[in-house]
Amino acid sequence: MTVAGRFERIALIGFGLIGGSIARAARLQGVAGEIVTTARSEKTRARVAELGIVDRVLASNAEAVKDADLVILCIPVGACGPVAEEIAPHLKPGAIISDVGSVKGAIVRDMAPHLPANVHFVPAHPVAGTENSGPDSGFAELFINRWCILTPPDGVDADAIDRLRAFWAALGAKVEIMTPDHHDRVLAITSHLPHLIAYTIVGTADELAQVTESEVIKFSAGGFRDFTRIAASDPTMWRDIFLSNKDAVLDMLGTFTEDLSKLTRAIRRGDGEALFDHFTRTRAIRRGIVDIGQDSAAADFGRPLPQIKKS
Ligand code: NAP
């Protein structure tokens, strides 16, 4: 019996947090016959070979995609166009070509023109991640109970979409389909803007003259440290995200700035009611996230409590 979502040969272009997690999860779930991977640097390729999760690790993207039924680009968004151009002549007819990029409009714009008509292009974004990167950072459980958004262009074969949906479901993800534009607007507010705010606030704290750096670090449990986790995310990946999703991010940033001004005014005027109402509304949003299982209900994100030592 064939396992739902199984592909005979999968080529992963890039083996970092996401590529490495896909490889580990696909192995565990038995949805990959052979897994071939590439990485840009010799250092990463050597480490991937040492890890022994995939069958073959190659330097050539063109070589890796030969005879692959599923090709997934797991590299920064800005690198996807040139790599699509490089692999296009070597793709197997009927193969599904996908990616994991955090922006979808730019991926469709940069990749689609290079791909031949005899392959199925189904862009994807697993909305799952951590602040870590590199070949050792991945883990098989990353996608469990997380969303994976597919953004197939009009006219893509329905069977190819179903096969990719089944693959992501086998890795534990819940799958949703959206247009690239809608995806980019949703992610601008749920992911890209929060990262921009974290990058800003951590930078601001670093530049403060009145509070010393050691004090910022020492008292970070007051809220700051939760921003530092996000602000530790990969600089290349996030540079590419902001450059590729410029319009939606600027749009959301405009709305955010207006809302920030409203809260600033409430503080200046001593308008406690406005502040209280706003914070009550935001608390309900957090509870909604916990209720649908997108985060733990445990206090402080489930960080372990320190133990009192008995004397
Ligand atoms: P990562 O851990 O830094 O791994 C990136 C991989 O891409 C590495 O194998 C790297 O090779 C390779 N690479 C980097 N630049 C390249 C280039 N110019 N050409 C070809 N290969 C290149 O990154 P990641 O977190 O897995 O992110 C990969 C993709 O997943 C990004 O598009 C990102 O938007 C998306 N994504 C990330 C997250 C997240 O939380 N991290 C979540 C969802 C989606 P070397 O190791 O040899 O440099």
TrEMBL record:
Record carries keyword Protein biosynthesis: no
One matching Pfam family: PDH_N
EC class: oxidoreductase
Domain Prephenate/arogenate dehydrogenase positions: 8-297
GO molecular function (one): prephenate dehydrogenase (NAD+) activity
UniProt keyword annotations, A-Z: Amino-acid biosynthesis, Aromatic amino acid biosynthesis, NAD, Oxidoreductase, Tyrosine biosynthesis
Family: Belongs to the prephenate/arogenate dehydrogenase family.
Name of the protein in its database record: prephenate dehydrogenase
Source organism per UniProt: Bradyrhizobium oligotrophicum S58
